[in-house]
Design goal:
- It is a single chain.
- The two termini are 15 Å apart.
- The chain has a single domain, classed as Alpha-Beta Barrel (TIM Barrel).
- It is globular, with a radius of gyration of 16 Å.
- By secondary structure, the protein is of the alpha/beta class.
- An eight-stranded parallel beta barrel has the order 1-2-3-4-5-6-7-8, surrounded by six helices.
């Protein structure tokens, strides 16, 4: 199944003054083993170029690269997997198109997490667990009780997302999460390596 506990989700706007490529390179060198390229506003051409850059960076460090929703770009750049948004490409379709890769799926409810499992996902990213600006449009955070319900009922690795930091990640593990998915806590950090080291201590590895 999955061999990582920390799943880094990209947002290039959080990386200033550096570039996304530079930040991902720092993160991978610090031990991150899985990166999801999620830049929904980019054109197909620009997303492909970004995927090529991140494929080079992740390959150098042995990290896995997932592409959000775009099987075509994942195939062309040689990614390791596809990430399926809740309202995007279904996991079973992604599996047919990309049989050699891992399939992750986002879920914002227990029902959606169950559907992802039945559709053949390898792991589920559930949230938002805590308040976070990037998930405001999804409504109030799901909370730890909802996370615990998902981990009890879904026989797949579940990664918690939404407002995750080294200070609260252990609460997600207590609820049965296999790990956490993170965006701003790493990408906006002034000391990338230090934050990743903190996550490694809490998660018992990356």
């Amino acid at each position: 199944m999955i061999d990582f506990k920390l799943y880094l989700v990209t947002n290039r706007r959080l990386c200033a003054p550096g570039s996304l490529e530079q930040k991902i390179q720092l993160a991978c060198r610090a031990g991150v083993r899985a990166v999801q390229l999620r830049e929904k506003d980019l054109s197909g051409r620009d997303l492909y170029r970004q995927a090529q850059l991140l494929r080079r960076v992740t390959r150098e460090s042995g990290a896995r690269l997932f592409i959000n929703d775009r099987v075509d770009i994942a195939l062309v750049c040689g990614a390791d997997g596809i990430h399926c948004p809740e309202n995007g490409l279904p996991p079973d379709t992604a599996r047919r198109l990309f049989p050699r890769g891992l399939i992750g799926a986002s879920a914002h409810s227990l029902d959606a997490a169950v559907r992802a499992r039945l559709s053949g996902a390898d792991f589920v990213v559930f949230g938002p667990v805590f308040p976070t600006p990037s998930k405001i449009k999804l409504g109030p955070p799901q909370g730890l009780a909802a996370l615990a319900a998902v981990t009890r009922h879904v026989s797949l690795p579940v990664l918690a997302i939404g407002g995750i930091s080294p200070d609260n990640a252990f609460l997600c593990l207590r609820c049965g999460a296999a790990g956490v998915a993170v965006m701003s806590a790493i990408l906006a950090a002034s000391d990338t390596a230090a934050v990743i080291s903190e996550f490694a201590q809490v998660l018992g590895g990356l």
